[in-house]
Amino acid sequence: MSVPPALTINGQRYEVGDVSPTTRLASFLHDHQLLGTHTTCYKGACGACIVVAAIPDPSNGVRRTMTINSCLVPVLACVGWELTTIEGLGNKYDGYHVIEERLTQHAGSQCGYCTPGMVMSMYGLSQSKDEWSAEDVEHQLDGTMCRCTGYRPILEAFKSLTPEDIEDAHKTRCLTTGKACSGCCSEKTKQGQTVAGQSLVRSLQLKDAAWHHPTSLQELLDTLAGFPEETKYTLIRGNTAQALYGCETYTEFIYTGDVPELSAVRLSTEELVFGGSVSITRLMDQLSFAAQTIEGYSYASQLVETWKYLGNTAVRNLGSWAGNLATKVNHHDFTSDIFVGLVAASAAITTVGPDGSTSIHTPEELLEKDLVAERRVILQLSFPPHGDNVFVRTIKVRPRTTTCLADVSAGFTLRVDAAAAHTVVDTPVIVFGGINPSFNRATATAKALTGKSLEDETVLQEALSVLASEVDPDSPPGGASPEYRQALTQTLLYKMVLEILGDSAGSAVVSGGSDLKRPVSSGQQTFPENTEAWPIGKPVTKIEAPIQCSGGEAEFITKIPARPGELFGFFITSTESNARLVSIDTTAALAVPGVVAVVTAEDIPGQNNLLAFAGEVVPGFKQPVFASERVEYYGQPIGLLVATNRGAAYAGRAAVKVTYEDQQPPVLTIEEALAKPLPMSQFPPVVVGDVSAGFAASSHIIEGAMRRGGQFHYHMETQVTVVNPTDNGFDVHSASQWLSETQRAISQVLDIPDNQVHVSAKRLGGGFGGKIDQCNIVSTATAVAAYKTRRPVRVQLDLADNMTIVGGREPYLCTYKAGVGFDDAGVLQAVQVFLTADSGYSGVDVSCPSAVDALPSCYSCPNWELHPQFILTNTPVTTWCRSPGTVEGVTFMENIMEHVAAELGVDPLAVRQKNLLPDGGMRRISKQVLKIRSRMAGQDLLDLPDEMKVPRNLISDMISQIMTSADVEQRKADVAQSNLDNRWKKRGLSVMPMLWPYSVPPVYPFSVMVAVNARDGSVSISHGGAEMGQGINTKVAQVAAYELGIPMDLISFVPSNVHSNPNSSVTGGSLGSDVCSYCVGEACKRIRSRLDTHQGQAGLVDPSWRDLVYSAFSAGVDISERYANGADEVKSYAVFGVACTEVELDVLTGQFIVLRSDILEDAGRSLSPLVDIGQVEGGFVMGQGLLTTEKVAFDSTTGKRLTDSVWTYHPPMALDIPADLRVSLLQDAPNPLGVQSSKVTSEPPLCLSFSVVMALRQAVTSARQDAGTTGWFQMDAPLTTERLQQLCLVAAGRLTLS
């Protein structure tokens, strides 16, 4: 008897119910209120959706436990599986799991949105292995992304776990019995059965398509044979291909994961055989075993080492090797690491047709087959043995360590007679991926090597020349350039030759044959204890950490339950970047069942402008909710479609027809925009002294330029808003860093009073400035839809829409001229700079005034002339992003100092020390910044001083400290010697100082409320700041506990809202935590003062807090307090920092490792050391991404953003951070101007990541010197692998054997 298809989740049986073949597990979990599993990318690349699955192997009945991406796998594929989600581990009621406890103890969460995925990744490792190493932990997290922490505390937390810890931990709690789960409540799964021991439903006819679940090969073939000729069908195992190529429309889906013949593995000395449904992970495990135990297969370890960087662990767990290969068959442009490895190994693939006939193919022959038309199934793969004289090497050059496609992948197989001068005996195999859709094997190059000695220099040069002639890379939009990819084919061939030759090659070049070896990461953290002020300064973990690390208990807006009648909204966006909008035809869309309405600019009752206070930054600029006359960038919202379900919304959006005219080429770069007149409302320059006189007094005039690209915020929680019409207005839950701005923006769009818009937010899943005002793209559109339909509306952007619709950090161009004195010591006499910022299509969030004010950093110069300017392009509005403007000013100044040192031929650090601002030196006040921030707060500043005194420049002492603690001199000598000894591996070591201007406007209010409960003395706090991972609540709680004299565990927080905390300013610029801590401290002082007065009046002797509070309440004393800071209460000051970074660069590929970073940060007397260290590490790693891997690209013809997923846009992941990360907070440096003597830490450390660029410059400089080129060179950021390799001047003629 058949039963409805079901799966087990946390010990409880769930029937699949009414789903479609494309319904993913993540959606199923959310529909069943298992909301702890988050989603961000829907591409299997960020790890937020990770769950653990125990999946039966149909070939032997054994369940294999693994982590999987719930955003990829169809829920129908999960029938019969046993799943564990974050809810199945621990919680605050039943106790936390040891993994959750350890992550909490190590301060491993900040915003908390990625945290359930992190926990489940580690849980999956603990359930899939009996023991594990630190390296296993690091690779387990290769597909789980965290934008906040910098990964170090997460890695350390998980490395501290042992199998014994897990065995003793709280077990998965069965939701049926309430006891520790020991497996499925019913019988173990047998072949062809469900968890209840009854037959699987083999075929399901669903509304739009059929799902087939065969349990034998014959059943699979019969199903295929029964389809009519024109049937659109697909075979599914892990469904991982849709991460790259999306979902096509099919009428028949066949799941292959329960076919025993496709899951079989056979290992022997004759061949290694793997069925087509064997996962890539299992393939790698079995190949590793064979390499160690079966003669003839040692080469397999090379394949495994390369495939460790194929996708990520969860993708490899779910995806099969045959699925990867089938994707290559269907999409010849796909750079398949599997395909390259199989060609190199001379593997054979067997396919089977509907009639049972089999054929054997090489991987290349398979590419010529139309498997779908012939209805053939990839049955199995076989590897042959290779002798000891056969060399097999595979290499993958990639833009980031993991979770990315290769720029170029290569495979080489050569039979070599080492005794005969390394002569190539047979025709070698040379295969490349990533060249063009039709090129795979370099046959002419292989012929050129056949029978030749690899020790012969002329043979190598001939082969390189032949290779250059037969490789013709294409130019895919957004991909690595043809020049780089062609160069890589030569350098990778050269690497292979060097590895074969070993010591037969010259000592200077031999290291080029090996890949960079990243050590297992480590870290150190030191900070002053300051016990006299505890709980201020006490190293406590974030107060939200336990619920962030546990069973999905931390509530985000995405977890707000849907209200009856709630609609889902999806943006209709432009497909032109510079055109007149003629019409929007919604007829077909409104006919789609479930589609309720489409709202456009015509439906806005008030102003079509999503900026309120924020619109005052640059007068004259606005930002429409919906484009109405002209579209200004590809992806600009022109409407919002709302429907009863997501499927209807997607279908409806696809049916909308938009007509354009007057299409113009898009302006996409600063250089293109500078060819036109500058926009209105430019800012005045900052002028100190007379630069003309300074240049006249200079012996050296140095001129140059540097470009730096933009950066996407990549907050794990994408933009999201829920709007519910009520009897007194609209309740709005918005992921906003500035609730007052969101309130005002909605009210002006709807043309209603502010008091009818009730905005609140408990916490944000990251922000980094991206949710200051650009969140209102979503919040205002959602409000218009709720206004029109009179129904609740929810809009959450998927990652691709978020990256297309919403802008990021501004790209910049810096051109400069610097003059230095006649003593050749590099003392600055004059600096003239033009800083040009790309503001997107409207100049509403412009940071260039901040940049010029921050540019002097910690340096002194008598003459400055600094010009801020912005231009407009046909791209999304660029906006505030962590340390906006200040990171540009600080880092461009460091580039100038590097240039000065290079021109003079002196040590860059010596030049910096010669130019340090003296104690008592004057620094320009960031007047333009303060005016902007004050206007954002609804104020206008008229009288501000021009300068402020820096009483003490701490940089000199901090440099001395880090020189000792980081052993800089010895390491510099080691780097220099290494660079002399090695042509193709270069190192660099840098020391970078920083002065970061913390600028607080005289009027910048935050409203807070501190309420003491009379009965038990517990304290509730509500403040106008946004908790988004930066630890604002923890710092506020520590200050409150200190001022009230109570334990922190008596304090809790009420979500921020516009009525309890009205008119609060933006949480940005590091101001939120600082000012809110100040305001709460002042409120608590007033409460404490009244309590102390009452205690004396009542004659109470040493009362408990609880008794004191109740006594005061009973006497009519007000035990609550509201406070908002007044004019000039919170002060501006300078924040200092120094970093020392060492890198290693593979000159042949451009790949690099950050070996070590030491950071010394001035935090004053830290309010919360663990929070501050987390901010330092997270900011530094985010800055490293900005300057190295995070390239933003647009299609030059259409203006479409090409880097719109984690597969194409590359923030750092766990294996990209400094391998050795050491952070210290400066000792004995209380800040007399700071809140409780502290300094801010959220943004300044990001600037110190430029030390990575400085170290890479040293490495590249050494490579260029080897190439015979000396002197300064422009080094634009981000420093991608391509840019680095090309800067190193690697030419084929230099690829020699000696």
How would you describe this structure to a colleague?
The protein has 1298 residues and is an alpha+beta fold. The protein has 39 helices and 46 strands. The strands form 10 sheets. The chain has an 8-stranded mixed beta sheet, sandwiched between helices. The chain has a 5-stranded mixed beta sheet with strand order 2-1-5-3-4. Strands 10-11-14-12-13 form a 5-stranded antiparallel beta sheet. Helix 34 crosses helix 35. The longest helix has 28 residues, at 1071-1098. The chain starts with 5 loop residues before the first strand and ends in an 11-residue tail after the last helix.
Layout of SSEs?
Blueprint lengths: L5 E4 L2 E4 L9 H7 L18 E7 L6 E7 L12 E3 L13 H8 L9 H14 L5 H7 L11 H8 L3 H5 L35 E3 L4 E3 L4 H9 L7 E4 L5 H4 L6 E4 L9 E3 L4 E4 L4 H14 L6 H8 L5 H6 L2 H10 L6 H8 L3 E5 L5 E4 L1 H5 L3 H4 L2 E7 L6 E8 L10 E10 L5 E2 L4 E8 L2 E3 L1 H7 L7 H14 L11 H20 L20 E5 L18 H5 L17 E7 L5 E7 L1 H4 L4 E5 L30 E2 L5 E7 L2 H10 L1 E5 L8 H5 L11 E3 L2 H6 L3 E9 L11 E7 L2 E6 L4 H12 L6 E5 L14 H14 L3 E4 L2 H7 L6 E9 L7 E11 L9 H7 L9 E8 L14 H19 L3 H7 L6 E4 L2 H10 L10 E4 L4 H11 L2 H14 L3 E14 L8 E6 L6 E5 L8 H13 L6 E3 L2 E2 L13 H28 L6 H10 L5 E5 L8 E14 L5 E10 ...
